[in-house]
Write the structure tokens for this entry.
Amino acid sequence: MIQAPRGTFDILPESAARRKVVEEQAEKILSAAGYRRIETPAIEATELFARGVGEGTDIVRKEMYTFDDGGGRSLTLRPEGTAPVCRAYLEHGMHKLAQPVKLWYLSTFFRSEAPQRGRYRQFWQVGAEAIGSPAPETDAELIVLLAELLDGLGVRHDRLRLASLGTPATRAEYREELRRFLRAHEDELAEEVRNRIDLNPLRAFDADDRRTRAVMRDAPKLLDRLDPADAEHFAQVRALLDDAGISYELDPTLVRGLDYYTRTVFEFTSDELGAQSGVGGGGRYDGLIELLDGPATPAVGWAAGVERMLLVARDLAPRAELVDLFVALGQREATRAGFELAREARRAGLQAQLELAGRSLKGQLKHADRIGARFVAIVGNGNGRVSLKDMESGEQRELGPSDVIPAILRGGRL
Ligand code: AMP
């Protein structure tokens, strides 16, 4: 039997209903704040991620599904949403619109990671991006919106980790300082960390190795090196979060896996998720649009994993699926009349299903009951009339074919 590839999964109807709740909640919360939906293609030029996500990141180094399109051009299945949204922003001249341009998406992403609970090779993210505003209110508002989305879905999150990465200049200086520190402790570091002192020294904070972690406790912290403007920006973000009653932990070791972040970075985590504890996170990326050949444009955004939210969502009750009418066939010859009745019912706004499996009349009624049909119309009982059965009261009436739908509309839940 052919199975879905490792690290991918099917979305069966039951889980589609739960996912729909996530989508509706995201739509409600984000559109109320003026975010509008955008969807970009699943494939992009590889260069977009090489430049936009960063050559030094795990994503670009080892997690991308990259292939030749047959014409010598390298394409990649999108591993994340921010770079594509920024590409679209530039490609469609959105920098000429009133700023910031506020966008959200709900799409699939692809990363070639070792699959485990909460970590897949094709997964879904809800994301939001506000492009064109440097204001700390934008950062705070986005964090509040993500908190609202998680709370609205009953997603248990234990912590909001918050930090500021400063501007590229501060970061470059800090990186040098950190490199010097790491080199001075080279003997005590895990090999993987040692090998990446030049490429990405910040990742040393993420290491699992015990001795490396001990060294890193005394490492210089970027939060202590912010320049006054960045420190002030961060203070304002924090004040707004305090006012909004959002609690957070300052985490000077918070390093997000993408190179493009500047200033604010944050991540909501849930311990219940185990090793993959990040539910959603993001930050400010003031340099990204310029990296993609656009004008200098400040921006901030986040993405939250749909599967991870669903794994820890508490009160996520999908609405029951409704069936207003089941059209049963008293005899085979009634197929055309039944087909027409079901079609008319749908045109009248009802949820209507037709018998499609050749069951006996008794079997059809049983089936109608199982799917929760409110009414059953039995066509083809020999006299040209339709028997309409109210499945709640058990009451049954004979009607002319054209009276069936009005009767349901009058007496049904509509
Ligand atoms: P990132 O772009 O890595 O910050 O990811 C944002 C969110 O997407 C994370 O917090 C996770 O909830 C989710 N996510 C990232 N990678 C995966 C994956 N491989 N499988 C499932 N969810 C993921």
